[in-house]
Amino acid sequence: MSVYDVEKIREDFPILQRRVGEQPLVYLDSANTSQKPRQVVEAVERHYLEHNANVARAMHLLGAEATEAFEGARAKVGSFIGAARAEEIVFTKNASEALNLAANTLSSRLGPGDEVVISVMEHHSNIVPWQMACQRTGATLRWFDITDDGRLDLEKAEREHLLNERTKVVSLTWVSNVLGTRNPIADIAAKAHAVGAVMVVDASQAVPHQATDVAALGADLVAFTGHKMVGPTGIGVLWGRYDLLAELPPFLGGGEMIEIVEMEKSTYAAPPARFEAGTPPIAQAVGLGAAVDYLQGIGMDEIAAHDDELTGYALDKLTSIDDLVVLGPTEAVERGSAISFNLKGVHPHDVMQVLDSRGVAIRGGHHCARPLHKRLGHQSSTRASSYLYTTKTEIDALADALVYTRNYFAPRF
Known about the structure:
Layout: H1 6-10, E1 19-20, E2 23-24, E3 26-27, H2 38-51, H3 61-80, E4 89-92, H4 95-106, E5 115-119, H5 128-137, E6 140-144, H6 154-159, E7 167-173, H7 185-194, E8 198-202, H8 214-217, E9 221-225, E10 236-240, H9 242-247, E11 258-261, E12 266-268, H10 282-298, H11 300-319, E13 324-327, E14 338-343, H12 348-357, E15 360-361, E16 363-365, H13 370-376, E17 381-385, H14 392-409
Helix pairs in contact: 2-10, 3-10, 4-5, 11-14
């Protein structure tokens, strides 16, 4: 697109024309899940109505068409993130499964005395699998702390020798789903590699919003999910360096992940089939391929610029509201579009309900990041998150609804 026309983009998302009672829908929960354009929905519909069959099994025409569409989606996703080859793309059901795949397979390399490093700002999906891996193997879990402004505390990590010769895995979010903080992954990956560690990245809040080059990122494994990038639910991705994937053991056993099965033992297929047991999410992969086409049609640099402009506008609006505190960076610098905040004296669930009554859809809770909220001294928070279809008018509606909510709950004397 030569000019970013958000109103034209919104025409592709019929759900955005809905009303909530007498109010127009203002959808500001895209960090939770994005809305889907008609092009993606129609691609899934066409697959089911015209090409539906299982992949890599049926030798008839429909089976060949389904396999071609499925593997075509893999190639599209690989190209989208700069993978060296399509076989570096493993399809999962979501980013959580992708991170569990990473933790379960890399745990084959862990033992007592080894260390896994994460951060306090991680989503539970990048905490719990590593806790479980350490419990199984006797390895130790350590983590980056954060500064008061919501950035990784790199100086403290350096003082405490967080990354050292015992570090075997470093697994970090690229962009925080709560704070919006964009972490310096390439720098940390270089330090991880210097001590012989594998670098895993949760890119769920990054890949949908900015151009991604996994080679430049410096990671070894990268997880993200389709439903946050205008794609279907039920499809996630784990990208990995092919040589690393080829060394890792299977995650699940079943059909198509094998080479030869005997009653006494089995041998396993090469990646990515080794990690895709059973019938995969075929139609969902087709939809994800259509989502990639849609995003590339707009342009990831254009989407990123729109996100940055909207995030700066929203931060200016929210920080001007009395009794509202923003969690994390308050300037749109090295920052994603998710903005979490609290209204003094008002529970986030109450904020969420009042805003919903005014047509504004946001999220209230700990956003699957309870340790982060505890570190910040907040029980929970309210989060607004924009995307490629969000307008400044919707940000204005959010700010007006928050002022209304603050005044509604204000003590009356």
